[in-house]
Amino acid sequence: MKASLLIALLAFVASSAHAGAGAAAQKAEVCAACHGADFNTPVSEDIPRLAGQYPDYLARALADYKSGARKNALMNGQAEGLSAQDIEELAAYISRFPGSLKVLPLHRFIR
Ligand code: HEC
């Protein structure tokens, strides 16, 4: 009895952790249509690479597109429906893709 309860609990924890990552991946699908499935090979040269970018840079850019502080017809439309949580999740998810951006390693700033 106890063992089966434990197994059920573990299965639940595993599936909810997976659902978190899955939700971000699902939200990012629409973004991949332009920015590339690996976020490092955008479909055209006027679309920026996002892979390997700092998550706070990505989150700031998305928040600025949403508020209109940064103007771009395509991205203002993309960001307008995103919640603050969507922005955090997308920024965290996308920044983890390995990319060819030449950003300085974070340890240069955080000591
Ligand atoms: C229809 C094509 C298209 C789609 C879909 C799209 N983007 Fe973009 N994205 C662009 C273009 C074009 C730019 C450059 C805009 C500019 O000059 O500010 C851009 C810029 C960005 C930037 C700023 C990058 C930088 O280096 O400053 C971020 C972050 C971003 N997009 C994230 C996303 C996310 C997250 C999604 C999905 C919710 C998404 N994009 C969907 C075309 C697209």
Describe this structure in words.
The structure is a single chain. The protein has 111 residues and is mainly alpha-helical. The chain has one domain (20-97): Cytochrome Bc1 Complex, Chain D, domain 2, CATH 1.10.760.10. It is built from 5 helices and no strands. It has helices at residues 2-27, 29-35, 55-67, 73-79, 84-95. The chain is globular and about 55 Å long. Heme C (HEC) binds next to helix 2, helix 3 and helix 4. Heme C binds at residues 30-31, 33-35, 46-48, 50, 58, 61-62, 70, 72, 74-75, 78, 90.
What's the architecture in CATH terms?
Orthogonal Bundle
Largest sheet: none
Separation of the first and last Cα atoms: 49 Å
What is the arithmetic mean of pLDDT? 87
CATH topology: Cytochrome Bc1 Complex, Chain D, domain 2
From the structure above, extract its key features.
globular, 5 helices, mainly alpha, 111 residues, Cytochrome Bc1 Complex, Chain D, domain 2, binds heme C
Structure summary:
By secondary structure, the protein is mainly alpha-helical. It has five helices and no strands.
